[in-house]
Amino acid sequence: MASEKTPVPNEERTERMRARLLDATLDVILKEGWAKASTPKICKQAGVSRGAQTHHFPTKASLLAAALDWRAGQYEKKIVERLAAGEGQERTLRALLDGIWEAMLDDRFIQTGMEAMVAARTDPELRALLARHDMDAVRSMRDMADDIGADPLTLARVKDAIELSVYLFRGLVVQRGVHNDPKFKRDLYDKWCALVDDALAD
Amino acid sequence: MASEKTPVPNEERTERMRARLLDATLDVILKEGWAKASTPKICKQAGVSRGAQTHHFPTKASLLAAALDWRAGQYEKKIVERLAAGEGQERTLRALLDGIWEAMLDDRFIQTGMEAMVAARTDPELRALLARHDMDAVRSMRDMADDIGADPLTLARVKDAIELSVYLFRGLVVQRGVHNDPKFKRDLYDKWCALVDDALAD
DNA sequence: TCTGGAAAACAGACTGCTTTGTTTGGCTGA
DNA sequence: TCAGCCAAACAAAGCAGTCTGTTTTCCAGA
Q1: Of A125, B21, B38, B77, whose CA is between 20 and 30 Å from A160?
Q2: Minimal Cα–Cα distance from B99 to chain A, Å?
């Protein structure tokens, strides 16, 4: 009658359930903050029983770690995609900064990352995990400068400018938690770009 | 005999108790992180009963708010003192940045501030409080540039550079929770100063 | 100056709630 | 049948806020 049985393979079921949980984990961290992100809330957000959650992720720490791993992968992908999108246009430092800046504006990835980084200060396991993610992220941002045609000396300076930009943007993201004013952010970004331009155009 | 009774005035008793609690609050946030800073832990750290804590601070939120207010005041004082200390030497942008940078290295004030700022994103009351603190802090940092003899046009640029520095340093503080490498930090600071020098020396 | 009650400061127990991890049992695809 | 998947109940622990009782300071009136 009504029940058309479409058997779902176990492997796929597992994959779906994990994805829903990881997704919900980031959602809850984003909405409630790191401190108030509890497993019951995550399960409710995901529409999953707590039994299912504990089956796939026995401890809360394992769930959070998996979510952050997944997050890092998605973020990396996002950066790469954004680079590929601007394949045609000229490669300038400004274009790179614009790309990083826009990627940084994505709440879901950046805000959860900041929450995790701050929490990692007092959590050794989390710290080790994020240290790896962070090194990868910074390195890939620096490497983006390789496409700019530049002599080795200025290339190093450009890469340093990019790295500094990353940290500055992170500071602005934290700032955003306190004042969320798009215009203010935009102005500051423009000032930053002007400063970098002046510095590198000697 | 043995018990020389020196009655302590209520006013002073209150002041002492409050100070111990506020101090312990920052200690616990620093050591355990925002999420795990509970009132029992704070009381234990302060060597105070929970009854006393609830007497002076009926809710946890009121305790945290008071501690952050106190922190902001201390931080302001610290900056002013540092400025006064270098009264004799010449006022340059570099000297100002050095001062801000050193003040930023103080765990007790900065790390607790970062924890609070991130938590404030999902806590409207905390957010309002920190928004005020932050505006005051940034403004006072900008005002520090007034002592530098400079024409109005470059003065504005110097102030912008200071503000950008503040956000950059905050990004580095967050970074510090993940990698705490003094040399790395120092190198990055030097690169930053070089960049600013290049930008403003046109 | 002395004194007795009011008010404040403090201590500790208790309540209701939330959280995390475990366990028990039914269900489904292999 | 059997192993993995999932749901719900359960146990232990921790937390915030309230309440009761004790000690200390304050202050007004004799």
Answers
A1: A125
A2: 19
- The verdict on pTM exceeding 0.90 is yes
C-alpha–C-alpha distance, residues B11 and B16, integer Å: 9
Distance B39 CA to C5 C1' (A): 34
CA(A86)–C1'(C7) in Å? 73
Residue A10 tokens, joined? 């176990």
Q: Which residue is nearest to nucleotide D20 (CA to C1')?
A: B51
Residues 6 or more apart whose CB falls under 8 angstroms from that of A172 comprise: A104, A185, A188, A189, B167, B171
Distance CA(B36)–CA(B28), nearest Å, equals 8
Name the nearest CA neighbour of A23 among A46, A57, A49: A46
Among A105, A93, A87, CA closest to A182? A105
Tens of pLDDT along B105-145?
888 999 999 999 999 999 999 999 999 999 999 999 999 89
Q: Which of residues 95-134 of A touch B (CB under 8 A)?
A: 111, 114-115, 117-123, 127, 130-131, 134
* DSSP label of B121: T
Residue-wise pLDDT tens digits, A81-103: 877 777 767 778 898 899 889 88
User: B66: buried, middle or exposed (CB in 10 Å: 19+, 13-18, 0-12)?
Assistant: middle
Contact A117 B198 (CB under 8 A): no
Task: Decide: CB of A38 under 7 A of nucleic strand C.
Answer: yes
Q: Which nucleotides of C are covered by protein (CB under 7 A)?
A: 8-13, 18-25, 28-30
The answer for residues whose C-beta is within 8 angstroms of residue B42's C-beta and 6 or more apart is: B21, B24, B25, B28, B53, B63
Q: Output the six-digit token pair for B67.
A: 């501690």
% of chain A with per-residue pLDDT over 70: 94
